[in-house]
Structures are given as structure tokens and as C-alpha cells.
Amino acid sequence: xxxxxxxxxxxxxxxxxxxxxxxxxxxxxxxxxxxxxxxxxxxxxxxxxxxxxxxxxxxxxxxxxxxxxxxxxxxxxxxxxxxxxxxxxxxxxxxxxxxxxxxxxxxxxxxxxxxxxxxxxxxxxxxxxxxxxxxxxxxxxxxxxxxxxxxxxxxxxxxxxxxxxxxxxxxxxxxxxxxxxxxx
Length: 184
Hints:
The protein is α/β, with parallel strands linked by helices. It has one domain (about 25-150): Glutaredoxin, CATH 3.40.30.10. It has eight helices and nine strands. The protein has helices at about 1-20, 25-30, 40-50, 65-75, 75-85, 120-125, 150-165, 170-180, and strands at about 35, 50-60, 85-90, 100, 105, 110, 115, 130-135, 140-145. Strands 1-3-2-8-9 form a five-stranded mixed sheet. Helix 2 packs across helix 5 and helix 5 (about 75-85) packs parallel to helix 7 (about 150-165). It is globular, with a radius of gyration of 20 Å.
């Protein structure tokens, strides 16, 4: 009887402790993925429940974009945090569908072989580099574009820097010195 009680106690204790796992630990166990949406969906959702907008600007032919999808965005800690704090958008820089934003309709512009979407061009400030991620605040104002491939441990810091509004209070170096990433 005592043995049964011990087993039950250990079982209940385990369930109790697992219930207090951090968000990062739960994400790893669940294998959370980024909930991508269109630009228009993110704008509409943000009007109802304001959040920052995270935009991954990519092209179909970009190898580093695919690496970022596989290695960075598929990281469960990164995915869980993006889903919690941002509306995540995938924007094909060569997409042909018009997008209405800020009282303007952005369209695809033919430029010979590939062309470019005007919204991607505007968000990238004319500097076409893929992948580039862009952060918009809750009022759809640009916070920061970040060009190039980013590995998950570094990217985790970046999304938290903006997600927690630390960029308004301290420098990047101060933030990094204080933050212990679960991915380090």
C-alpha cells in the first residue's frame, strides 16, 4: 500500500511540475509552428487585437529564405514567441496579388525577368535583399527591417527585443547582456 502511495505521489508531483513549465519548454514539447497569415489578415486581426506585425519578405528562388524557414522559423521556441507577440506574415517579394495598405494599393511591377511587389520594395526601403524580416508596431509604423539569414538563437533575441518593447528603453547591447535566451 505504501508503495502504491509513493507511485501515485510521484505521478501527481510530475504532473504538477510539468504544469509549471516555461512557455519555451511547452513549445519544445508541442513542436509549435508559426501561424503565417496574409498581410491583409494581419492588418484586420491587429485592428481587433493590436499586436506588432512581423513580415518575412522572401522569394521562391532564395536559398537562404528556405534555410530560414527550415532552421529559424521552425524552431519551436521562436515559433511560440512569434505566435504570442506578433501577427506573422509571409510576403513574396515577387507576388502578383495587389495589397491595400495605408490608403494605397501596392501592385506587382514587371521589371524584366522577375519583377517586384511595390509593398516589398517600400518595406525594404528599396534595398532588395532576401530574406529580410520587417517589424511593424501596433500602429503599422516601421520599427526595423533586418536583412539576411538569421539563426534561431540570435533571432530569438531580436524578436524579444522588439516584442517586449526593450528597444524603447535600452540599447541592443544592454538587452543582449541581460537576456538569457533558452536557445543559447
